[in-house]
Design brief:
single chain, about 325 residues, alpha/beta, Rossmann fold, 2 domains, seven-stranded mixed sheet, 11 helices
C-alpha cells in the first residue's frame, strides 16, 4: 500500500516521504479500513516537527489520527456485519506507529465509528480530534442552556464545532477572532457576538456583551495567552476547558484570580478521553449529523502526495476550516 511516513522529526518537506508499506494485519478485535480521507491536525504536525523537543516514538511513523473510509476486513472477534461499513476513525496514530496517512489502517473496532450516508469521507476525517475535542470542551461546562459561553479562536477547526455544539445545547456564544473574515465565519457557525482580539479590548467587549455579568463557561484554545482575560470575564463558579496553550506553553497566573471565584479548570487531551466521555461525544455527534445539524468546514484538501504542503498549511494557521488529505485521489496499490 502507499503511505506517507517519516523516520526523524523535522520540517515537513524534509522528513515526510511517500512509499510502499505492507498492509497491516487485522487484530482479533479490530478492523481493516480502506482509508478514503485523512485529517491533518495540529497535534499531527507538532509531533512530526518535534515540538517541545519531542522525539520519535517509533523508528518510522505513518502520521495522522483522524480519517474516514470503509471497513474491508474484520478480526475474529468482530461481527462480519461491519464489512463494507462506512466509518470515521479516531486515535488512529495514538500509541501506534501507523496512522491514517495511508491507503489502509488496522485498529480496534471501537475506534472505527459508523459514518452516516449524508456525511462525506472528507467531512468524516474532521471528527476524531476537532469535533470530539469541541464536544467535550463544551459539554464539560454542564447545563449551558441560556448561558453565555466564550469560545476563543472561533474560526479554528475546534472553535467552529464548539460554537455549533454550544448553540445546539442552548447556549449564547461569544467568539474571539483575529480578522473580519474569521468573524463572519464564526457568525455563520452560530456565534451571537464576535470580538476581534487584535483590535478590541476583549475583557471590555465580553463584559459589555454580557451586561457586566461575564460568561459561565470558556472553551480555551491558548490558556497561557488568554489567562488574564479568562480570569476577568469568568463568572463565579464558572468553568474553563482548555485544549491547548501553543503560544505560551509555560503558564504563570494569579491563583486567586480564579480561586476566589471557585472556577473549575479542565485541561482537555482528546486522545485520553475515558470510555464514557468518548461515547458521549460519538453519540451526540452522530445524532446531530444524522439530523443534518452540523456543518463541517473543509479549508484545504491535498492528495497523499501533497502531505508536506498540507502540514505546512496547518502550521501557517491561515486557513479557515479543517485540512484533509483526499486519499481517494490516489490509485490503490495492494
Amino acid at each position: 500500500m502507499k503511505a506517507a511516513s517519516y523516520q526523524e522529526v523535522g520540517p515537513a518537506k524534509r522528513v515526510l516521504r511517500l512509499g510502499e508499506h505492507s498492509i497491516p494485519e487485522v487484530p482479533s478485535g479490530g478492523v481493516l479500513v480502506k482509508v478514503c480521507a485523512s485529517g491533518v491536525n495540529p497535534s499531527d504536525v507538532k509531533r512530526r516537527a518535534g515540538w517541545l523537543n519531542g522525539l520519535m516514538e517509533y523508528p518510522e511513523v505513518i502520521p495522522h489520527s483522524d480519517g474516514a473510509g470503509v471497513i474491508i476486513a474484520v478480526g475474529e472477534k468482530v461481527s462480519k456485519k461491519r464489512l463494507e461499513e462506512r466509518v470515521w476513525v479516531y486515535n488512529g496514530q495514538w500509541e501506534r506507529a501507523m496512522g491514517t496517512a495511508a491507503e489502509y489502517i488496522a485498529l480496534p473496532s471501537e475506534h472505527a465509528v459508523h459514518l452516516h450516508d449524508n456525511v462525506g469521507f472528507l467531512e468524516g476525517a474532521c471528527l476524531g480530534v476537532p469535533a470530539c475535542t469541541a464536544y467535550h470542551c463544551v459539554a464539560s461546562g454542564g447545563d449551558l442552556k441560556g448561558q453565555q459561553v466564550l469560545v476563543h479562536g472561533g474560526a479554528g477547526a475546534v472553535g467552529a464545532y464548539a460554537i455549533q455544539i454550544a448553540v445546539l445545547l442552548g447556549a449564547h456564544v461569544i467568539a474571539t477572532c483575529s480578522t473580519k473574515e474569521k468573524a463572519d465565519f464564526a457568525l455563520s457557525m452560530g456565534a451571537a457576538v464576535t470580538i476581534n482580539y487584535k483590535s478590541q479590548n476583549v475583557v471590555k467587549a465580553v463584559m459589555a456583551a454580557t451586561h457586566g455579568k461575564g460568561v459561565q463557561h470558556i472553551v480555551e484554545v491558548d490558556f497561557g495567552q488568554n489567562v488574564e482575560i479568562d480570569a476577568a470575564v469568568i463568572k463565579s463558579r464558572g468553568s474553563i476547558a482548555s485544549y491547548s496553550s501553543t503560544l505560551k506553553p509555560r503558564v504563570e497566573y494569579d491563583y486567586y484570580g480564579f480561586g476566589y471565584k471557585g472556577v473549575s479548570i479542565e485541561f482537555v487531551q482528546v486522545y485520553l478521553l475515558s470510555t464514557s466521555e468518548r461515547l458521549a461525544a460519538v453519540t451526540h455527534l452522530n445524532q446531530w449529523m444524522a439530523a443534518g445539524a452540523l456543518t463541517h468546514c473543509i479549508g484545504h484538501v491535498s492528495s497523499l502526495e501533497g502531505i508536506a504542503q498540507a502540514h505546512e498549511v496547518q502550521e501557517s494557521g491561515k486557513v479557515i476550516g479543517n485540512i484533509v488529505l483526499d486519499i481517494e485521489k490516489e490509485s490503490v496499490s495492494v
